[in-house]
Amino acid sequence: MCVGEKHYARYGIRDVLESYVADVIMPDITRGGGPREMKRMATMAEAYNVLVAPHNTNGPLSTLANSHV
Questions:
Q1: Residues pairing with 25 in the sheet
Q2: What's the predicted TM-score (pTM) here?
């Protein structure tokens, strides 16, 4: 199951990770707090053995930012 495009910042995905309900999280870089916060979310997901697939509906600039993370 993949969730997370509407969860904001690392505090928003914490409950999802701790309850082990997702195999993949999809944080949105523009809503989630930017590249640094996205990196923090990815680090948290790694600790719970959950994959990260960035959510992107905002065009080429967000695609570039996601690829940097």
A1: 3, 52
A2: 0.78
